[in-house]
Amino acid sequence: MSSPPPLPFALTVGVTGHRLEGIPAEERAGVEARIAQALERIESEALALFKREQDLFAPSPPCFMLVSPLAEGADQMAAEAALERGWQLQTVLPFDR
Q1: pTM of the model
Q2: Please, are residues 86 and 61 in contact by the beta-carbon 8 Å criterion?
Q3: How many CA atoms lie within 13 A of 42 on its CB side?
Q4: Is residue 73 left, alpha or beta, with left meaning phi > 0 and alpha meaning psi from -120 to 50?
């Protein structure tokens, strides 16, 4: 009896946060740094899982995606940080295409 083919390893993270005016100017660099650190940790832990459980997944490289509504502020900060890490970006539009 054959088993189904292994699935690719994919991880999607959704974000939403404060608008730019809700983040004091003197705290914005810190928020950006914490977002980047969070994405780095998520990716690191996911890659460790992928390596540890590699027999469960297809051999293709893992795929990381960030879902964000891209509002001005933390949403855009997270999108930029994800793109810098090579993640894919999916946006949620609040209206019909």
Answers
A1: 0.87
A2: no
A3: 21
A4: left
